[in-house]
Amino acid sequence: MEAATALEVKDVSPGNAEEPQTSPRQGARSPISQILSPIEEHPKICLPRALRQTYIRKVGDTVNLLIPFQGKPKPQAIWTHNGCALDASRVSVRNGERDSILFIREAQRADSGHYQLSVQLGGLEATATINIMVIERPGPPQSIKLVDVWGSNATLEWTPPRDTGNAALLGYMLQKADTKSGLWFTVLEHYHRTSCIVSDLIVGNSYAFRVFAENQCGLSETAPITADLAHIQKAATVYKTKGFAQRDFSEAPKFTQPLANCTTVTGYDTQLFCSVRAFPKPKIIWLKNNIDIQGDPKYRALTCLGICSLQIRKPGPFDAGIYTCKAVNTLGEASVDCRVDVKAPE
User: Fold this and answer.
1) How confident is the prediction for the chain on average, in pLDDT?
2) 178 - beta bridge partners?
3) Following DSSP, what letter does each residue of 80-92 receive, concatenated?
4) 207 DSSP β-pair partners
5) Where in the numbering of this chain does the Fibronectin type-III domain appear (predicted)?
6) Backbone φ and ψ of 125, nearest 5°
């Protein structure tokens, strides 16, 4: 921000017919003294480049401004603050042959304003204006309020601080803390609005929020905290069961693998296999030439997981014939046959 810096030289001598008025700050200078001390060099102020824009200091900092000027013989240097005389209890001035020093040991916000240096020599005057702004941390936002909570999100609003620290606000910093850990984590920085939505909060936790104001000096020393906690509730899970009809597995016996014809050798054990499917579990009956052979020690019948087997122990010529496996349950029956031939060893 460019300061309204004025550098000008005025001829305020009594002999100027167009401007007969004399500056009140020329004091006791008389035409006789001007004749005794002729002006060899007109007054001029060399304002440093850094002071041509607003000079910013923090509260408590030292202000030490050295302003060079020209003029011969030695001109008179006069400082004013906002058009009034300086407060000698706070501001010190030292005027040299070629410069003037303005010194404030510990700057306060009341020291902000327009400082004008006037260099007078005879009927001539040069002026320069310096803008000084003393700033400090802003006050905290006035309040913060939890507006709404939905899902894993929370809406917040707050009001700006009453005191900005004599400087423009750079934004706000928002923090969150869950009640389990109590630790504060930054959510937003340099945020310019006074409302926001905080997302991705953890389900099952409860959160508090606080907000700081920020300017060129930094963050406010304190921050308001939300009076209410944001409780992130776990959504109730509703399980919908699909209706289904109970399947009826009842089935009449059905052979999935039939018996196979075979030829065996006299004296060598032989086994017959088949498989059946049925529910309820069927009763298995073995027949030879349509005669039930259950209980005959020459035969051994087994049934496991629907697989039916019949072992013929050391068959002889009389064991040849048609073998039948019959399965029976309450829903029906089924049977399979095979032919077994027995031959003499070669």
Assistant:
1) 87
2) 207
3) EETTEE--TTTEE
4) 178, 230
5) 140-235
6) -150, 135
- Tell me, what amino acid is at 338? C
174 contact partners, CB below 8 Å, separation of at least 6: 156, 186, 187, 188, 191, 196, 198, 209, 210, 211
What does pTM read for this prediction? 0.55
Q: How far is CA 306 from CA 249, 255, 303, 328, in A?
A: 15, 9, 6, 13
**pLDDT tier, 2 (very low <50, low <70, confident <90, very high otherwise):** very low
Contacts of 342 (CB under 8 A, 6+ apart): 263, 264, 265, 266, 315, 316, 317, 319, 320
Q: Are residues 255 and 239 in contact, defined by beta-carbon separation less than 8 angstroms? A: no
Peptide bond into 24 cis (omega under 30): no
Residue 284 near residue 308 (C-beta atoms within 8 A)? yes
Residue 225 backbone class (left: φ over 0; alpha: ψ -120 to 50; beta: rest)? beta
Tokens 């030490």 belong to: 64
Cα Rg of the chain, angstroms: 55
Per-residue pLDDT band at 20 (split at 50, 70, 90):
very low
